[in-house]
Task: structure prediction
Amino acid sequence: MREVEFNGKKLLQMRVTDGGAMFLGSYVLKLFLQVAVVIVLAVTDVPSTFSATMAYVCIVTACNELAFLLTPLAYGKIKGYDTVRNMGFGGRFDPWSLLLALPLTVALICMGGPLAQGFTALVQLIGYDISSATSVTPTNAGELIAALIVVAALPAAAEEYLFRSNIARALSSKGYVFAVFVSAALFALMHGSPLQLVHQFFLGVACAILFFATRSLWPPIVLHFVNNAIAIVLAYLEYTGAVSAVMEPWQYAVMCIVGAAASAGLLAAVIFSSRIHADKTDPGAQASDAKGLGQTLKTLYETPDMREFAQEELRALDSELASAKNEQAAQVILDDRRERARKDKLKDRRALIYSFGFTIVIWIVNFVMNVVGVV
Result:
């Protein structure tokens, strides 16, 4: 990670290693805080039934989100750059993108819900006990309001700040399609439960595309919040008997197909709208001429200063090579650049291996413990 001064502005350049470090740090801190909560409850007179209450869910959720907020801030402090200024709230995005996030949420739920239920049914056949999973089911208006604030709004802000503003942005050094899908995979695995693996992956993909396409954290936060809020409200309405979630298999299949088509169409609409907005506000980007998802997101996300700085670095290298006294000196410069690139690539690969390896091991351990009845 480095922060450079260019055209009177500070540009933050992050690598995969930075994203991996922040992910591992936040995940470890999250586990530490969860264990701390369990220990505090164990040494106090709080009854064991407290873990089945909305208050417990809110406490654990608040601890998790605290970890997701503190880790990037602490990492930035250690590295010497201002994470608050680089949160991603300052971008000027097309308002239509924000409006499209609302129906996109519904489309994602229609697609991801049936797929998640199918995956849940599969792990139940293996022996996974879904009753042990912490559920968010408000039983009255007070609990509903608390859940919407702590379990819907807080995670939307904290998790988007960690996974999109920091991790996805760091992963984009390896390509924007790579950043979208890898950050979504880490986001899904972070939840630590088979019940939240499938839908959260698709939600992460959509949030990352929104972040890069709009150059702002607000649209993915809105998408994330509405997704959480719908789940909480539906759980509350189902508890009160106002709605029923029972559907026929063919109805789930139709809902999934329609949801997938609508999700793809709405994401395409967000990108199209962002292209039009970019052509008006930043003609030099030539967003309409970009081909492919990766190149389009790169064109939409990178600012004029970012593009100009990248060109300036290439010109600096050309100038350094031109000033070399002979071909041997020029070759030394190129070899040095290649060696540094090789070391950076090795560090990035290790960061990904450690991030996925640690998370998958924890995920498998939790899964096995559930199946054998330890938890």
